[in-house]
């Protein structure tokens, strides 16, 4: 046992002081209930509100469903920057994305044209259509071509095989009647 300090195995709880007024609490409450704010802001607002009600990072982590380290980082950032300012994401490392004026012009010109003019089968643009290249024309292969697998070359259509297996589980005698004997 310790010398009058309580349980020697547990570190003392560190309380992070978060100065906030009623207006900031109201703003946090609005953000935490928002369905249009980014998810990260909503989660951070919930963390700060829960901590203001019960100053235990462990309890808040369990309540929100994040790690204690996430809660502690959020709270330290809120103590450093301010409660509302801490909700925003930090700037990411690396260079800002740059799109050239020429690329913007090309994209606008592409979006202003109808897909039919560019040999796409649809009337209006869909989100993935401008990004992917035009699909090549399909060629029809005949099963009778030499070297090509067909229904009579000993290979089984996987859709039929699944159907036969399912039928065999239900009607064992019926599935067996469809299997052809091998030549040889």
Question: Top keywords for this entry?
Answer:
single chain; 184 residues; mainly alpha; 44% helix
Helix content: 40-55%
Please provide the count of β strands: 0
**Spatial extent as radius of gyration:** 32 Å
The helix count comes to: 7
SSE order and pairing:
Layout: H1 22-33, H2 39-53, H3 57-64, H4 68-81, H5 101-112, H6 158-170, H7 172-178
Explain how this protein is built.
- The protein has 184 residues and is an all-alpha fold.
- The protein has a domain at 22-87.
- It is 44% helix and 0% strand.
- It has helices at 22-33, 39-53, 57-64, 68-81, 101-112, 158-170, 172-178.
Quick overview:
Helix content is 44%, strand content 0%.
């Amino acid at each position: 046992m310790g010398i009058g300090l309580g349980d020697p195995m547990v570190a003392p709880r560190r309380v992070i002081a978060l100065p906030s007024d009623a207006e900031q609490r109201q703003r946090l409450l609005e953000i935490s209930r928002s369905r249009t704010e980014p998810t990260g802001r909503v989660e951070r607002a919930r963390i700060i509100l829960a901590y203001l009600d019960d100053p235990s990072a462990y309890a808040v982590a369990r309540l929100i469903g994040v790690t204690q380290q996430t809660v502690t980082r959020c709270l330290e950032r809120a103590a450093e920057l301010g409660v509302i300012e801490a909700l925003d994401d930090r700037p990411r490392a690396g260079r800002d994305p740059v799109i050239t004026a020429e690329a913007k012009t090309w994209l606008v010109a592409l979006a202003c044209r109808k897909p039919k003019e560019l040999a796409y089968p649809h009337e209006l643009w869909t989100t993935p259509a401008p990004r992917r290249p035009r699909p090549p024309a399909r060629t029809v292969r005949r099963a009778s071509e030499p070297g090509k697998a067909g229904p009579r070359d000993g290979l089984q259509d996987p859709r039929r095989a699944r159907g036969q297996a399912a039928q065999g589980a239900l009607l064992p005698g019926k599935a067996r009647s469809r299997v052809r004997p091998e030549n040889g």
